[in-house]
Amino acid sequence: MGFAGKAAVVAGAGGGMGLNIANDLIAEGAHVALLDVKPKPADIRGGPGRSQYHQGDVTDEAFVKKAIDAAAAAFGRLDYLVNATGVLWFDRDRSLVEMDMDVWDRVLAINLKSFALTARHAIPHMKKAGGGAMVHFSSVQALRGDDKAQDAYGASKGAVISLSKSIAIQFAKDGIRSNSILPGATMSPMQARWDGKVELQKQIAAHIPVGRIGTTQDQANACLFLLSDKASFITGTELIVDGGTTALP
Questions:
Q1: What is the pTM of this model?
Q2: Residues whose CB falls within 8 Å of the CB of residue 148, separated by 6 or more in sequence, listed in order
Q3: Any bridge partners for residue 8, and if so which?
Q4: pLDDT digits (tens, 9 = 90+) for 75-112
């Protein structure tokens, strides 16, 4: 897909979708800097692309700048940014009328501010490279409410869409594209509550038109397409990857 010799930063790459995307880029020959607060995972691909792992808090601007600058220096360029960082705190993220607002602030910092910080420090390097592409992970939850409210999560994911559009408009003249992906139900560490619960998984799949829960590979496939030159005329938009769920009446 034309990634050989290019360079990427993937935030939230300590597992799940982010790690899957990073590994697929490495397999395509891209050099990848993986950022996450989690310890370095054991299953980062060995090549053909090179990789480096930066453990730290992506809501900390000093850490983000240092990691992105180090990646651009090591790889000689920066072409892609993937924002896959996110938290879904069912036990704490509730209705705004009852939530501890410190939780609200922290969820928005992780799910939204970190995206702004990575973009802020990636854009100058992309300009030097002559352009680039970004993918920011939102959620289908950005399009609807929920009777089991997770208000901070939903608000943060809605804002990701707006942020991505703004980046797309501002930097199109610099050859930088920005799009967002809205995953539906996906088996990933974020949904560990589904692990081993076969009947629950069947119930969830029954409400998805394609008849199954999504995988991190489904999301990675969509992400690599949007990053690639095959999507060179696509910017400022959202790709829903949910097996048809949001198409239901």
A1: 0.96
A2: none
A3: 32, 80
A4: 999 999 999 999 999 889 999 999 999 999 999 999 99
Which conformational region is residue 138 in: left (phi greater than 0), alpha (psi within -120 to 50 degrees), or beta? beta
115's tokens = 């995206």
Catalytic residue numbers read 153
What pLDDT is stored for residue 40 in this prediction?
A: 98
CA atoms 9, 189, 161, 96: torsion sign: negative
Mean pLDDT over residues 143-147, rounded? Answer: 86
**Cis peptide, bond prior to residue 48, ω within 30 of zero:** yes
Task: Map out the domains of the chain with their CATH numbers.
Answer: 7-243 (3.40.50.720)
DSSP class of residue 140 equals G
Locate 87 and state its tokens: 């938290």
3-class DSSP assignment, residue 127: helix
3-state secondary structure at position 47 = coil
Beta bridge partners of 80: 8, 133
Instruction: Pick the closest to residue 82 from 23, 140, 129 (CA basis).
Output: 23
For the chain, the distance separating the N- and C-terminal CA atoms, rounded to the nearest angstrom, is 36
Q: Which has the minimum average pLDDT: 45-49, 52-56, 108-112, 184-188?
A: 184-188
State the chain's mean pLDDT as an integer: 96
For 218, phi then psi, to 5°, come to: -55, -45
Q: What's the pLDDT tens digit per position in 224-245?
A: 999 999 999 999 999 999 999 9
